[in-house]
Design goal:
mainly alpha
């Protein structure tokens, strides 16, 4: 008797499963096709992304060769194109190369390229903070107090690993302007940081003891 009931139950389950597939055939087929399309789209996107990055890599490396050959105008054009691609690796490298080799003298243009990296490029937080710091460093020699602080405030008001670097830059900026009290205030902030760079902390203490002691 129990065996008969078990056989009936199994037939009932099988019938229900069969009916479910029959009744939902179109939905199941559509779902499978959708999943296949998603996987295929992801695969094709990764292929495109890899080829695109390879092309950027080639353009960057070719620019270095062109620079050695003296074709600076072509180098500037190509590296600006790399920056505008907003790539997390090659766009920052392209900007650093332009700055390090003085290939663009217009400060507004350089700052616009910095802004592409900072505002429009997908970067890890500390990489972005490093670029903000480099922008501050680039502008420190000719920028006003307000402009420099505006650039560096996102780091100064954070717990970034680059905070001590930014504070040191501002402190030295004020020291160069002979605004010693402001300079001292920023140096003291460095000493109170838990994650301050140790070399910067040592140089800060030297500066305070040598030049800013009461």
């Amino acid at each position: 008797m129990d065996e008969d009931i078990a056989i009936i139950d199994e037939k009932t389950r099988n019938e229900k499963i069969k009916n479910f597939f029959v009744q939902n055939k179109k939905l199941l087929v559509a779902s499978i096709l959708f999943i296949v399309l998603i996987l295929l789209s992801f695969y094709l996107f990764k292929i495109y992304e890899n080829k695109h990055r390879e092309a950027l890599s080639n353009k960057f490396n070719t620019s270095l060769i062109d620079y050695k050959n003296g074709d600076k105008n072509k180098v500037v054009t190509n590296l600006k194109e790399v920056i505008n691609e907003k790539d997390s690796t090659y766009s920052p490298l392209a900007l650093y190369f332009l700055i390090d080799n003085d290939l663009i003298v217009n400060t507004n243009e350089i700052n616009s390229l910095f802004d592409i990296l900072i505002e429009k490029t997908s970067l890890e937080t500390e990489i972005k903070n490093l670029i903000i710091y480099k922008k501050g460093l680039y502008n420190a020699d000719f920028s006003s107090e307000n402009d420099l602080l505006e650039i560096l405030n996102p780091i100064i008001n954070s717990k970034s690993l680059w905070k001590s670097h930014a504070l040191y830059l501002v402190a030295e900026y004020f020291y160069s302007k002979n605004e010693k009290q402001k300079s001292k205030e920023f140096f003291v902030q460095i000493l109170n940081l838990d994650n301050a760079n140790q070399e910067i902390k040592i140089e800060t203490q030297k500066r305070l003891n040598r030049d800013l002691s009461d």
